[in-house]
Design a protein that fits this description.
Elements (H helix, E strand, L loop, with lengths): L32 H15 E3 L5 E3 L10 E6 L2 E6 L10 H13 L7 H8 L2 E2 L2 E2 L6 H16 L24 E4 L2 E4 L4 E3 L12 H9 L9 H16 L10 H12 L9 E2 L11 E8 L3 E12 L2 E13 L7 H22 L7 E5 L2 H8 L6 H13 L5 E3 L7 H6 L3 H7 L24 H5 L26 H21 L4
Parallel strand pairs: 11-14, 14-15
Antiparallel strand pairs: 1-2, 3-4, 5-6, 7-8, 8-9, 9-10, 11-12, 12-13
Length: 500
């Protein structure tokens, strides 16, 4: 038996919840993300070293070397060794590669600073993807970038560029893979690779694999993927086994959708999105929702030599949850999705100085975003996030028939999407800003007020009935004296009388 004394003097009852006050210390320490990043950076720099030939290596502290043991056969016996440097293939390798490249590029010679800054934002693991404006810039970039990385014994090779044909450096195949997509650098266009496979006896496992085999990170065919996501949601709702065939109705619907993807690789999307000076650029985010899904799509508008260009940038969709959600709430979720995607695009493409416009045909969601009211938890949290990512003055109303996000929220076939010309953006963006929609709308005030925070008023007034004898005394002290005399009288009676 173990007995311990946790007695603490001069302590309130509420202090018993404080473990440190009663002698139990919690060794777990929590830090903010900024502090954690600083600690990781310090640890990284402590282990970083460089050989005479320029190569970098990451050393491992002595107390951590036991986690990287390996066995070696020598002289007919097994010898135990420990790595003193980080080896390739551990969990932290991608981070360390990016950290070493960033450290190297941030400490280059002053004459290479411009190219190093471009390289810093162009690397994705060990792939470099960027763009330049002229052929001269291209040749300078290749020469300086190669020299910068060669200083760290990192070889940049397999250069591919386009669409110019007369460049003397061009000596590659016309089509190259770029981060999961295919790039035709003669036409300077992107397309989605697709390889058909048999789908007989479709199970949940096979369905999930096929749907995710269509790799479309930018969202070129988001409207086409919505029907497949809905089928996937229905398949999960059946609670069928992973490898058992799905119901025939789901299999036939998915088969019809899948056969419609046969020509997806024939669709080519122009890589370049901006023309002219950035002063003429503007970013337009459209949001919409239906009962089945909600979506957002972003276009970049630019002007050059008196011509207006509207180019597709990115799109994203989400399936509505199985638990039914009202259409106004789904419209608000679409606005949240648009705000998040816009922040990502602005950061990735360095468009912070470019004017941004948010468009939605949801009058109720628009009022939630623009009005200063005490909304309920669901609406308030999402409005708060939208306002943290955008300004409420940037949000505008657009008629539903002009909203290009409408088709992305409802879904369609690939053939219909091609005929619709979805990637060209709405026609009104090609006009001057004065001609853009400025529609007046009358929101449903009942739907708006339904999401206001409920107020509960409780009446805690208490009516106290005063007894008659209480009113006979003028003060509390007099009442006490009278009661004392009464108790004294009763006690004397008990002593003087015998009770039977």
């Amino acid at each position: 038996m173990l007995i311990t004394n946790l007695h603490v003097q001069n302590m309130k009852a509420s202090d018993m919840w404080d473990l440190e006050r009663i002698g139990i210390a919690d060794e777990v320490q929590t830090f903010s993300k900024a502090v954690e990043d600083q600690l990781v950076q310090e640890q990284f720099l402590k282990g970083l070293s460089r050989y005479e030939d320029g190569r970098y290596c990451i050393g491992i502290s002595r107390e951590d070397q036991n986690y990287l043991k390996f066995l070696w056969w020598e002289n007919n016996k097994i010898v135990e060794f420990r790595h003193k440097r980080v080896v390739f293939g551990v969990t932290s390798s991608p981070y360390l590669l990016a950290a070493v490249i960033s450290f190297h590029l941030e400490n280059v010679h002053a004459k290479f600073e411009i190219v190093a800054e471009k390289l810093l934002h162009a690397f994705y693991v060990d792939n470099c993807v960027t763009s330049v404006d002229t052929n001269v810039e291209l040749e300078v970039f290749i020469q300086q970038a190669t020299a910068i990385m060669a200083d760290a014994k990192m070889e940049l090779r397999m250069w591919t560029f386009g669409p110019e044909q007369e460049l003397s450096l061009q000596n590659v195949e016309p089509i190259s893979p770029v981060l999961g997509l295919q790039w035709d650098h003669i036409e300077d266009s992107l397309f989605i690779p697709f390889k058909s496979e048999p789908i007989a006896d479709l199970s949940k496992r096979k369905l999930l694999s096929i749907v995710h085999s269509v790799f479309d990170p930018l969202g070129f065919v988001v409207p086409v993927m919505v029907p497949a996501k809905l089928i996937l949601q229905e398949a999960w709702a059946t609670e069928a086994n992973w490898d058992l065939p799905l119901p025939d109705e789901l299999q036939s619907r998915f088969s019809a959708w899948y056969h419609g993807l046969s020509c997806i690789s024939q669709l080519k999307f122009e890589r370049r999105i901006g023309y002219g000076k950035r002063d003429s650029w503007s970013l337009h985010i459209f949001c919409d929702a239906s009962k089945n899904a909600y979506a957002t799509v972003i276009f970049l508008r630019s002007e050059s030599s008196g011509q207006v260009y509207v180019k597709f940038v990115a799109a994203k969709s989400r399936i509505s949850p199985l638990k039914k959600v009202t259409i106004p709430r789904l419209e608000l979720l679409a606005c949240v999705l648009g705000s998040r995607l816009a922040k990502y695009v602005v950061t990735a493409l360095s468009l912070r100085e470019v004017p941004t416009y948010y468009w939605t045909d949801a009058t109720v969601a628009l009022c939630w975003i623009q009005r200063e009211e005490n909304w309920g938890v669901f609406v308030n949290n999402r409005v708060k996030e939208i306002r943290s990512l955008s300004k409420k003055e940037y949000w505008r109303h657009i008629p539903g028939k002009l909203n290009p996000a409408d088709i992305a929220s409802r879904g369609c076939t690939l053939q219909h999407l091609s005929q619709y010309g979805w990637w060209e953006g709405p026609e009104f963006l090609k006009a001057s800003p004065e001609a853009w929609p400025k529609s007046e709308f009358s929101p449903n005030e009942e739907l708006i007020a339904a999401e206001m925070k409920k107020k509960i008023i409780v009446d805690l007034s208490v009516k106290i009935e005063k007894p008659e004898w209480f009113e006979r005394f003028s003060s509390f002290s007099k009442i006490v004296r009278v009661f004392c005399w009464m108790i004294r009288f009763v006690n004397k009676l008990r002593k003087n009388f015998l009770w039977y």
